[in-house]
Structure formats: C-alpha cells, structure tokens
From TrEMBL:
<comment type="subunit">
    <text>Homotetramer.</text>
</comment>
<dbReference type="InterPro" id="IPR004104">
    <property type="entry name" value="Gfo/Idh/MocA-like_OxRdtase_C"/>
</dbReference>
<feature type="domain" description="Gfo/Idh/MocA-like oxidoreductase C-terminal">
    <location>
        <begin position="138"/>
        <end position="324"/>
    </location>
</feature>
<keyword id="KW-0520">NAD</keyword>
<dbReference type="Pfam" id="PF02894">
    <property type="entry name" value="GFO_IDH_MocA_C"/>
</dbReference>
<comment type="function">
    <text>Involved in the oxidation of myo-inositol (MI) to 2-keto-myo-inositol (2KMI or 2-inosose).</text>
</comment>
<dbReference type="InterPro" id="IPR023794">
    <property type="entry name" value="MI/DCI_dehydrogenase"/>
</dbReference>
<dbReference type="InterPro" id="IPR036291">
    <property type="entry name" value="NAD(P)-bd_dom_sf"/>
</dbReference>
<dbReference type="InterPro" id="IPR050424">
    <property type="entry name" value="Gfo-Idh-MocA_inositol_DH"/>
</dbReference>
<protein>
    <recommendedName>
        <fullName>Inositol 2-dehydrogenase</fullName>
        <ecNumber>1.1.1.18</ecNumber>
    </recommendedName>
</protein>
<keyword id="KW-0560">Oxidoreductase</keyword>
<feature type="domain" description="Gfo/Idh/MocA-like oxidoreductase N-terminal">
    <location>
        <begin position="6"/>
        <end position="121"/>
    </location>
</feature>
<dbReference type="InterPro" id="IPR000683">
    <property type="entry name" value="Gfo/Idh/MocA-like_OxRdtase_N"/>
</dbReference>
<dbReference type="Pfam" id="PF01408">
    <property type="entry name" value="GFO_IDH_MocA"/>
</dbReference>
<comment type="similarity">
    <text>Belongs to the Gfo/Idh/MocA family.</text>
</comment>
Amino acid sequence: MGDLLGVAVLGAGHMGADHIRRLDQVVSGARVAAVADPDRDRAEAAVAGLAGVTVHTDPVAALDAPGVAAVLIASPGPAHEEALLAAFERRLPVLCEKPMVPDSAGALRVVEAEARIGRRLAQIGFMRRYDAEYQRLKALLDGGSLGRPLMLHCTHRNVSSPAGFTSAMLINSSVSHEIDAARWLLGQELTAVTVLRPAPSAGAPEGLIDPQFVLFETERGALVDVEVFVNCGFGYQVRCEAVCEAGSARIGDEHTMVVTARGAAREEVAQDYLVRFADAYDREVQAWVDAARRGEVTGPDVWDGYAAAVVAEAGVRALSTGGRATVDLAPRPDVYATAGR
Ligand SMILES: NC(=O)C1=CN([C@@H]2O[C@H](COP(=O)(O)OP(=O)(O)OC[C@H]3O[C@@H](n4cnc5c(N)ncnc54)[C@H](O)[C@@H]3O)[C@@H](O)[C@H]2O)C=CC1
Ligand SMILES: O=C1[C@@H](O)[C@H](O)[C@@H](O)[C@H](O)[C@H]1O
C-alpha cells in the first residue's frame, strides 16, 4: 500500500459509493484510506470488504485519519464549502463533485482561499470533459474546420429526479454540466440567462417546474439552449449539437447495442449517468490520482466551479422572474486560466 495515494471519500451515497468502487477496483495508484458519512451504516456498507479503511461520521475527522493524502468530496453540494476549506487548510489535493458550491458567495470564498494559497489544490467534477464524445467535439471546434460556433443545442434528460430535488436544482445541479461544457467547448464565459417553462409534465412531482428550457448568451455572441427534463421517464439522454458557420456536429445519439427481432430493431437507452458516463468518471478519477501523485492538480478548476455557480444563480433568478438575468463574475485571480483552455 506504500506508494498508493490514500484517499478520504466524504459522502457514501450514490456517487461516493461508486467512486469508492472505482478507487478500489478500476483506478490504479490509489486506495481508499477513510470514508465519512453522517450515516455510519451507509459508510460501512460502502467500504465493506476493503482493508485499512477508517470510518467516520465527521468529515473533518476523516481528513486527519491515518494514511490520508487526498480527498474526494461526494457529499451534497451545500456541504462542499466546509470540506474544501478544511482540505485546503491541510494542503490536500481534492476532487470535488459538482456543483463545487451551489451559492456564488460560498464559491467565491473557495476561489479566494485557493488564490491565497497561490496554487491549485482542487479539481472540480465536471466529468463531461473526460467523455470521449465531448473530447472529440472539443477537438473539432478547436481545430477550426467548421468555422466559428454560432449555437449549441443541448438536451439533458433524466429518467426521474431524486427525493428533494427542487426547481432550482434543474439549473444548479443538472444544467451545471451544460454550463461548464458550454464554457469549455466555446472558450467563452456565459453572460446572460433566460428560462422558459413549458407546462410541467404530469410525470413530474407536484410543484416541480420540469421540464425547463434554458437559454444562455455568451461573451462573443453565441447562443446555448438547453432542454432539461429530469422526470422524462424514458431514459438518460445527454446530447449536444454545435452549429458553426461551415458545418455542424452532434454528439450523444444513442450508441449502445441494437437488437433486431420480430420485425423491429430496438436500441438500448442508458437509464442513468453512472452508465452513460462510466468511462468519463473512470478517466476523471484516474487523471486526478495521476496528477496528485506527481504533485500536480489538473482539469476543471475552482474558477470553473465558481463561474458555474454564478451562471446557475442567474439562471435561478431568471426562472423566478421570467425575465433575462445577467451574469456578473468577480475579477479572475491569476492562478486560474481562462474558460475553455
Ligand atoms: N458528476 C455527476 O454526474 C454527478 C454528481 N453528483 C454530485 O455528487 C454529490 C453527491 O450526490 P449523490 O451521491 O447523488 O447524493 P446522495 O444523497 O446519494 O449521497 C450523499 C451522501 O452524503 C452524505 N452526507 C451528507 N452530509 C455530509 C457531510 N457533511 N459530509 C459527508 N457526507 C455527507 C449523506 O448522508 C449521503 O450518504 C452531489 O454534489 C451531486 O451533485 C451526483 C450525481 C451525478
Ligand atoms: O450530476 C448529476 C446529477 O446530480 C443531476 O441531478 C443529474 O441531472 C445529472 O444528469 C447528473 O450527471
């Protein structure tokens, strides 16, 4: 176990348990050293059968546990700020699930804390940047053969939303992925948001505004639209079409097995993100572990997490007022690169 990166995993729910399995069975160079969840039974179940792991109900205690050299934060968004700041105090490299911090004031405090240290410590869990299809689209747009991007048309559908999912979370949890993907693909900040609401689906829980149609403007005049529908009932579908001056490119059409029988062809549709983005999560965590073992931090940074929080907050304002909300970012510290590098 000597050379392996000892990771404390905070939160042992859906994502935390999946990342624990990934660190133990898929990723090389790391091991789970500690796990924390206020629900001790859940934490113990997630590490059942693993040797050398300590179990905690207090996340900060897990950071100080024997063998911990890095932190993976998979607790709910509102708990991320405290965990990030505690990891920064200890100078531990962090992989933090999205949303980095759901509110922009808290996200700015994280930016300021890391900027004071003067070097990157955190990678933010925008795993689409590690998805093979998104990477091909990014390379194509950067290559310039299609000319200037004019529009992105995005679709984000979940089969159903978890208990407690709110109308704001369609934007600050689900659409946070499109916010980051659009900034990265286009290399531009998003500057304004408008949200339209079709009549809610009968399949959505009472009171949830689902679906929503979110329209972003960018600093160099591109438009990004997102249909977000988190109780569609039929499949997990994430698509993106870039329309450029000299052509278009689309990713996310179903690409799983096609079964032909009894006079019909049937294509399987993934039912959740753990299936659709399995390879992307694997590559994201491997990249984080490899960088941490070299003493580096790469990938989406705290500025990306902050920008996503500000844009999402504008989106939630636009949803509640029915109007157009503008995005106002704080000055960007030098430690962070520009959008989309
Ligand atoms: N990248 C992606 O595609 C996805 C990311 N996520 C993100 O992962 C995070 C966790 O989401 P899920 O696993 O779906 O939630 P979940 O509700 O299944 O699990 C969260 C776990 O964290 C525990 N917890 C609560 N407060 C805590 C604290 N202060 N410290 C440590 N643990 C705490 C809860 O008891 C629970 O076991 C969220 O930030 C969510 O947005 C979730 C789904 C997909
Ligand atoms: O991050 C995720 C969830 O938190 C969110 O609730 C889902 O809508 C997304 O598809 C998933 O990738």
